[in-house]
Amino acid sequence: MAKRDYYEVLGVERGSSEADLKKAYRRLAMKHHPDRNPDSKESEEMFKEANEAYECLSDPNKRAAYDQYGHAGVDPSMGGGGAGFGGQNFSDIFGDVFSDFFGGGRGGQRGGAQRGSDLRYTLELNLEEAVRGTSVNIRVPTLVNCKPCDGSGAKKGSSPITCPTCGGIGQVRMQQGFFSVQQTCPRCHGQGKIISDPCDACHGEGRVEEYKTLSVKVPAGVDTGDRIRLSGEGEAGAQGGPTGDLYVVINVREHSIFQRDGKHLFCEVPISFVDAALGASWRFRRSMGASN
After folding, report:
1. Does 32 map to a domain?
2. Residue 265 CB contacts under 8 Å (≥ 6 apart), including other chains
3. Fewest CB atoms within 10 A around its CB: which of 108, 185, 212, 247?
């Protein structure tokens, strides 16, 4: 089934501002939240669809790619990576082609250090915590550098050796008629090094799965869809590359009395005709600690 247009999902025009996008998303999230519609499969799907649309359009880079290429510009399964054509511009694409066939460009660098992946964690908060701010501990599964081998992938006391097939370049040259074609080395897979004695803990990967417990300070006034970036708390990079980031995405649960509209809270209070005509006052104290 083809995906619906993200702007259509949120019910906004293509030129809508970030504030309009956020307002439309809040409205849909409140209407279709699973806590409010526990038995509705349709509402659950619409909630997920709205989350996906807002996550894309709230990111300027992803939105630009989506506006230009549609779903293909942001969906990895369709060849997109957030910037159209899998995240590459035309110079990158042609650079890869000429690198493969003539040995130029960036071919020798493909097996080098790679930055670790960014991670996403959805943090559920109640309205009180969102309004006042809080500090919470979260437990996140991630990839970290293997301690026994210090991320090298080789058993302690040994180290990776230069690939004898490519001489450490990561690519091999093959002669095809009049053309000299350069391809990724089949032995080291472009790394330029091979591990003859892999680490027992990580089996030569250099990284292992681990849970990290992190303290997250949530500022006062956050709302559903807001993100908190924890720099360097994502997955460890491969081959000594830098660590990715962790993005904590806020989801504020529905309150039993109050509803939120930006910085304002409101609730509905049923009154009788006599109270409406003559006026009245109430005093109540619930979980928000409010008093009227």
Report:
1. no
2. 127, 131, 258, 259, 288
3. 212
Residues spanned by the domain of 267? 256-292
Distance, CA of 6 to CA of 50 (rounded, Å): 8
Identify residue 194 by its one-letter amino acid code. I
Query: Rounded to two decimals, what is the model's pTM?
Result: 0.51
CB 19 within 8 A of CB 41: no
Task: Extract long-range pairs of 93-102: CB within 8 Å, 24+ residues apart.
Answer: 99/182, 100/181, 100/182, 100/183, 101/179, 101/181, 101/182, 102/180, 102/182
Report which DSSP code applies to 110: T
Indicate whether 273 belongs to any domain: yes
Instruction: Output the six-digit token pair for 108.
Output: 């020798």
Partnered with residue 114 across adjacent β-strands are: 238
Query: Is 195 among the domain residues?
Result: no
Q: How confident is the model at residue 137 (pLDDT cuts 50, 70, 90)?
A: very high
Task: Read off the tokens for 69.
Answer: 């290429």
Q: Are 213 and 137 in contact (CB under 8 A)?
A: yes
- Please give the Cα distance from 194 to 192 (Å, whole number): 7
Distance CA 15, CA 288 (A): 38
Question: Is it the case that residue 126 has pLDDT exceeding 60?
Answer: yes
CA 282, CA 273: separation in Å to the nearest integer? 15
List the structure tokens of 114.
């790679």
Number of domains present in the structure of the chain: 1
3-state SS assignment for residue 248:
strand
Which region among 71-75, 102-106, 177-181, 188-192 has the lowest average model confidence (pLDDT)? 102-106
CB 117 within 8 A of CB 234: yes
Q: If pLDDT is split at 50, 70 and 90, which confidence band does 121 have?
A: very high
